[in-house]
Amino acid sequence: MKIEHIAMYVNNLEQAKKFFVKYLDGKANKMYHNIKTDFRSYFISFDDGARMEIMNKPEMSDIEKPVNRTGYIHVAFSVGSREKVNELTNFLKTDGYEVISGPRTTGDGYYESCIIAVEGNQIEITV
Asked: CB neighbours (10 Å) of residue 17?
């Protein structure tokens, strides 16, 4: 069994798409638009076959996303090396994203950093 894709509702579909394409080398498909419901989405595909669906529809509730909460907390992207974790973290920081941890080696041996991006959601960058 494998996870087929992960989905995320966003307010700004184009900005979210740009983030995953620019920083994480994602490739976006053509936007799907259901004219009846005004639902819109992109599938972002990554080199290893993983996919993320980013979606938008009218009248969504956008609640606060505190770091320490129950539910899905982050999506982790492996970039292949400690150097690439450092590089991407610095690039994101320079572009104004909040780095909330790392880069560092965690107690369970991961080398990672976490940033707040895509409308307050956490993105983990790891080896």
From this structure: 20
